[in-house]
Amino acid sequence: MEGRVEVFWNGAWGTVCHRGWDLRDATVICRELGFGEAYAAPRRAVFGEGTGAIVLNGVRCTGNEETVFDCPARRGSGHNCWHDDDAGVRCTGDRPVKIICPSNQTIDSDSNQNFATVNLPGPAASYHSSIGRLEITIDVDGSTHRVNDEVRLSIANSPHVLQFNASDANNTATCSMQISVLGIGVRLVGGSDSMEGRVEVFWNGAWGTVCDDLWDLEDATVICRELGFGEAYAAPHQAAFGRGTGDILLDNVECTGNEETVFDCTAIRGSGHNCGHSEDAGVRCTGDRPVIIICPSNQTIDSDSNQNFATVNLPGPAVPYHSSIGRLEITIDVDGSTRRVNDEVRLSIADSPHVLQFNASDANNTATCSTQISGVV
Length: 377
What we know:
This is Deleted in malignant brain tumors 1 protein-like. It holds the Pfam family SRCR. InterPro entries: HYR_dom, SRCR, SRCR-like_dom_sf. With about 375 residues, the chain is mainly beta. The protein folds into four domains: about 1-90, Mac-2 Binding Protein; about 100-180, Immunoglobulins (Immunoglobulin-like, Sandwich), CATH 2.60.40.10; about 185-285, Mac-2 Binding Protein; about 290-375, Immunoglobulin-like (Sandwich), CATH 2.60.40. It has helices at about 25-30, 215-225; strands at about 1-5, 5-10, 10-15, 40, 55, 75, 90, 100, 105-110, 115-120, 125, 135-140, 145, 150-155, 160-165, 170-180, 185-190, 195-205, 205-210, 230-235, 250-255, 265-270, 280-285, 290-295, 300, 310-315, 320, 330-335, 335-340, 345-350, 355-360, 365-375. Strands 17, 18, 19, 20, 21, 22 and 23 form a seven-stranded mixed β-sheet that branches. The chain is elongated, with a radius of gyration of 38 Å. The N and C termini lie far apart (about 105 Å).
């Protein structure tokens, strides 16, 4: 599928001069031989000098001819070429696909973010078979993308391995590269799911932990929002999710709860702390967890003086946490009528006990619980 081009003419084999020789001329030769496309048209006797006559010179194919003899050219002895000008071809045939990955990259994260926005690069496809269209896909963190797709690569999972896959009808090839994202980042480690865990931060090129001195719900909420997990409903102390390793990078964190990143909060950074890994801080985030409500205990109340009913301000349930997606709504069904927390209602002794059904919902989740109120004279 590659070599010096020789043609048979007037009863003898001869060579082709490389004057004007290009990929279109070489493609006609490759197709004529059943070897698909040409991916190179070498000149200057790359495959060695031939012998005998130089039969063709100044070949000018369009690339669509059935044979090189259909192309305009000078034939015979009317040339000024030597065998060190012999032309050659390299044909794709059904060769294996070859790809060459881009070099590994190190990039900075986007401003005040824990990720970098990247347009995925493409590999070099040095040649491929002419049998079928060449397809190139890129596997990034388990997701398939195309060249030039825009993706966000997090600091938490850096370095990211990009596996390039090239294939045509008969052949495949792979190569891989890494993209390392530098900057500041946050991740949760050791939790029962992705929305809770020991807080680890990326700073000065390494991951480390956060000391639980002054650690509270406002600090934890900044972490949860930074990771896209809504609000925090707990800020555990004392390595609740296990002890980390490496440096303790932040101590005495004091967030207001409105910061975009924990690095915007007041804190001691680096080695100026008095903490050990037994004090590693953690968070529990609401994310899109189901709403959880806990009803008040059953109640027994006296009726209003000389009346057969009792006036009650409807109590509210405890909501230890709920999804951050949408506003939390709480309604109370009382004797078929919908009420709100703290509504004033009259509950008759005749229909006692009264069952109050509490309903809590946000955009994606609902929960119910119930309690009883009994009236006595």
